[in-house]
Structure formats: C-alpha cells, structure tokens
C-alpha cells in the first residue's frame, strides 16, 4: 500500500508551532528525511508559468528520490488551492509514496497511475481539515489499477501519424532527455502527456514483466524552471517560454507533436509500431574442427610419396656399397670422413702433452715462491693487502 502526504498553507501545521506552508497531513510511516525533501519540492509552484492563461497550472510529476541509499518513488500533483486562512493565494501539493518493494509487484507505469488518479479524483485540490496523521484507511492500493496503455502506440499514432514515434523519447539508450512543447497546463493537457508517456514507457517492457523498467524514467508534465531540469528525463515545456529556450540550449531534445514528425527506426521503434519484440538474429556457430585431423589412407600415401629436402642436406659422395667405419666398442658410426691415426702419431701427441704439463708446473712453482718472498720481506703475514 502507498502512503500520502499533503502540503499546503494551514493555520496550524502537523508539527507543533508551524503554520503557513508546511505539511498538513501524512502517514506516520513516512520518514522525516523524506518529508523534508517533499516539502522542498512542494514549495515550488509558479502560477504564472503559462503566459496569458487564466487558469493556474496543474503539474504532475514522477520522481525517484534516493536518501542515504534508500530509494522512494514519489508521485505528486501541484496546483492552485484558492486562498488560505489569511486570504493569501494558496496552492496544494499532494504526494503519494511507494517503496521499491511495492513497485516491484506492479504491472503498470507511473503515468497510468496518474491518469487513473485523475479519473477517480484521488488527487486533493483542497485541504480544509485540521492537521492530522493519516491512518490505514487512507493508504492507497495502487495494485488495483488496471493497465490502459497498449501497443501499437495508438495515441502517438493519432498525434503524429506514426506509432513508431513513441520511441522518440527513448532513443538508442532509453535515457534521452526529451521535452514536449505544450500550450497549457490544465488537467486535460496533463492527461494528454501522461498518455504519451505511458505508451513510451511500455515500449521498454511490452510484456509488463519488468517493473523496474516501467518505473525507471522520471518525468513531469510541466517543467517550471531550469533549476529542476536535471530531476526529469522527460518533461513538458511551455511553447516559446524561456524555460524551453534554456532547455534547447542545454541540449535537451524537443519533440513537436505534429503529423510531420519523422518516425525513428530501430528496435524500440519496431516495438512501438508492432507491439512485438523483434527477434535478434544470432549467427550460427561455426563447425568446430580439431587442430590436427588424422590423415586418411589416401592422404598418407600421398604424403609419403613426396620427397623431403632440407637446407642442410647435400648429395652424398659415398658410394652406395661403401662401408662406413664404426667405433670398435660402441658400434657408433664414425662418419665417412674418419681417418684412423698411426701409433707414431699418437706417441708424438702424448709427448707434447707431457711437455706442456711440465712447463705449467714449473711456472706455478716460480710464481708461488716469488709471492711468498715478497710477503716475508714486507713482514706481511696472513692475507694482508700487499699494496
């Protein structure tokens, strides 16, 4: 169940000692931090936002408010409330708060909730009772609301000539900051925009199974000032107003509701126009082949018949019937260029080796003796430095 808050000018507010514009009624279950945030938002009301209009504006907004990591879904209507107890002009803000847990079970969009509340006169246009805390009887059952928006987007078709234009508010990433120029801010104009917003939201989840998608985009039926611009992804803007001009300069996309509006293309446009989710084309997986396939019998015979040559191979000069010498003990081939040595040759090599070893020994003895003599002469014993 959803909780309610009422903000208006009252002789004695809900909090002792407060009067004038403040919270006049609410559910106790709403946290004080959210109440304070609601009061800041409810205080903003520009009754002259529509030049030349005799009727004060009615503004409907949907916000996702995060406080200390906790999210709250706030639906709100702000409108004229005549004169207050002192005779001054008065306005009223009526807020309805839903928790993420409650939203997760819904199959409707916030725009559809607003439309149903307008039809059922749920929104308060006056508050003349004493300040009070609402009880369970004032809780709002949003789950009872029957969905009204359908696809193909019939209202976008009527307004612009193509149902695909419901995707104008979504773009490619479903997060385009878009504005719709409006000529007034009556409940009729607000209902018109809510109907368009509902169809565009439905494009995000035409089967209504993902409540997070249906409630993912904050909007307002009338943007009052540039200061609150970043609070809303979608908004209505008074045609030709300074607010609209500032939004265009800041890069917000303006979508004129006229039959000459060029319809977009892409996935969202297809859903808006047909009501069906296009099937994504998935490429067929390629047939896997092993890194090394065993050769067939025919392939093997062809492979063995190919002569193999290497860069180091050279024609052999050994006659086909020539014998190759081998080691007498190991039997290892000694190569074709092997030439056995005579006994005299071996004897000469041995004598040469013995002479080299003898000279080496004499050199070591002479050098070692010289070192010892130098150490004794200098009186340096042990391993001291000689220099």
Using brief descriptors, characterize the structure shown.
387 residues; 10 helices; disordered C terminus; alpha/beta; ten-stranded mixed β-sheet
Helix content: 25-40%
Order of helical and strand elements:
EEHEEEHHEHEHHEEHEHHH
Radius of gyration over all CA atoms, rounded: 47 Å
Mean model confidence by pLDDT: 84
Overall structural class, as computed from helix and strand content, comes to alpha/beta
Number of strands: 10
Low-confidence stretches: 299-318, 380-387
Choose one word for the global shape. Answer: elongated
- Straight-line distance between termini: 100 Å
Strand order of the largest sheet: 6-2-1-5-4-3-8-9-7-10
The amount of beta strand, in percent, is 15-25%
DSSP helical segment count: 10
Main sheet characteristics: 10 strands, mixed
Characterization of this structure:
The chain has 387 residues and is an alpha/beta fold. The protein has helices at 32-42, 100-103, 110-119, 154-160, 187-204, 211-214, 242-249, 267-274, 297-304, 343-378, and strands at residues 3-10, 20-27, 59-67, 70-83, 89-98, 132-134, 178-182, 219-220, 234-238, 253-254. 29% of the residues lie in helices and 17% in strands. A hairpin with a 5-residue loop joins β4 and β5 (89-98). α5 (187-204) crosses α8. The longest helix has 36 residues, at 343-378. Residues 299-318 and 380-387 have low confidence and may be disordered.
């Amino acid at each position: 169940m959803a909780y309610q808050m009422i903000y208006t000018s009252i002789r004695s507010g809900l909090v002792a000692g407060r009067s004038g514009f403040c919270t006049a009624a609410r559910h106790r279950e709403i946290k004080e931090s959210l109440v304070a945030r609601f009061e800041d938002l409810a205080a903003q009301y520009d009754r002259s936002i529509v030049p030349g209009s005799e009727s004060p504006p009615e503004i409907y907004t949907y916000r996702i408010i995060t406080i200390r990591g906790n999210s709250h879904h706030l639906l709100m209507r702000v409108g004229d409330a005549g004169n207050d107890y002192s005779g001054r002009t008065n306005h009223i803000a009526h807020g309805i708060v839903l928790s993420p847990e409650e939203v997760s079970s819904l199959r409707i969009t916030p725009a559809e909730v607003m439309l149903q509340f307008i039809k059922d006169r749920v929104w308060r246009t006056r508050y003349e009772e004493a300040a009070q805390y609402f009880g369970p009887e004032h809780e709002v059952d949003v789950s009872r609301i029957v969905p009204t928006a359908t696809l193909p987007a019939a209202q976008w078709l009527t307004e612009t000539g193509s149902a695909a234009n419901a995707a104008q508010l979504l773009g490619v990433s479903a997060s385009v900051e878009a504005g719709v120029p409006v000529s007034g801010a009556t409940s009729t104009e607000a209902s018109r925009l809510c109907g368009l917003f509902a169809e565009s939201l439905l494009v995000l989840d035409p089967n209504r199974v993902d409540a997070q998608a249906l409630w993912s985009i904050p909007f307002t039926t009338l943007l009052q000032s540039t200061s609150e611009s970043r609070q809303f992804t979608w908004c209505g803007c008074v045609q030709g107003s300074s607010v609209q001009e500032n939004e265009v300069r800041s890069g917000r996309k303006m979508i004129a509701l006229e039959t000459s509006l060029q319809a977009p293309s892409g996935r969202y446009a297809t859903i808006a126009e047909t009501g069906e989710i296009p099937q994504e084309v998935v490429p067929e997986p390629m047939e896997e082949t092993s890194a090394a396939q065993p050769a067939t019998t025919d392939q093997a015979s062809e492979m063995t018949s190919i002569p193999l040559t290497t860069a180091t191979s050279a024609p052999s000069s050994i006659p086909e019937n020539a014998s190759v010498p081998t080691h007498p003990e190991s039997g290892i081939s000694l190569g074709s260029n092997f030439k056995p040595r005579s006994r005299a040759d071996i004897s000469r090599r041995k004598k040469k080796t013995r002479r080299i070893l003898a000279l080496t020994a004499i050199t070591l003895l002479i050098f070692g003796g010289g070192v010892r003599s130098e150490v004794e002469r200098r009186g340096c014993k042990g391993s001291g430095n000689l220099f």
